[in-house]
Amino acid sequence: MVIEKSESKARRFQEALDVMVMVDNGANASVLEKADIKNGDMLIAVTQHDEINIIACMLVKKYDVPLTICRIRNSGYVDQTSVLTPKQLGIDLVINPEKVVALEISRMLHFPADSEIEYFNRGKVMMLGVTVGEEAGIAGVPIKIYRCKVRRPLLLGLAITKVSSLSPVGVTLLIQGIKFTCSAAVEH
């Protein structure tokens, strides 16, 4: 169920997605009840207004909705100096668009040749899926040298070629086309 205040946006949702759409205010308890929030598994509050998103999350927690995801641009609502924690605001996961963009830009600057990066443990650990391409400048380099170039401890995973997979060791050469995975602590 999508709750959208704007009729034109609601119409576009209805046309583009296979979901039910209600034109109303998602931060209103009676509207949430009409949307059968009591039987909902999650709320994703992503309006342009932090306060509306927070109120919607607080309300649905009163209906025992197990998971709330909230878009908040103003980090003052949920940073360390904030009087209330996200949990106290009824928020399980905060999405801050500026932080998401900053992380993506940082990822692209630090690892331009990497094809896949995933972050775990609240951004403290990253897993890289690296495909060695010509432009990467690491083809023909032993993995132990690549480890030194990254300047952080790496836990190497699996190296995959077109014909086999292997557990790489320090002398394994990074050849063009090989894909390997590794994980490392993220420096802040």
Please describe the topology of this protein.
Elements: E1 2-4, H1 7-16, E2 21-23, H2 29-34, E3 42-45, H3 50-62, E4 67-71, E5 93-95, H4 97-110, E6 114-120, E7 125-131, E8 141-142, H5 143-150, E9 154-160, E10 165-166, E11 173-174, E12 179-185
**Rg computed from alpha carbons, rounded to a whole number of angstroms:** 22 Å
Q: Indicate the CATH architecture of the largest domain.
A: 3-Layer(aba) Sandwich
Biggest sheet, strands in spatial order? 6-7-12-9-10
- CATH homologous superfamily of the largest domain - what is it? NAD(P)-binding Rossmann-like Domain
What does this structure look like?
The chain has helices at 7-16, 29-34, 50-62, 97-110, 143-150; strands spanning 2-4, 21-23, 42-45, 67-71, 93-95, 114-120, 125-131, 141-142, 154-160, 165-166, 173-174, 179-185. It has 2 domains: 2-95, Rossmann fold, CATH 3.40.50; 100-185, Regulator of K+ conductance, C-terminal domain (Alpha-Beta Plaits, 2-Layer Sandwich). It has 188 residues and is an alpha/beta fold. The longest helix is centred in the middle third of the chain and has 14 residues, at 97-110. A hairpin with a 4-residue loop joins strand 9 (154-160) and strand 10 (165-166). It is elongated.
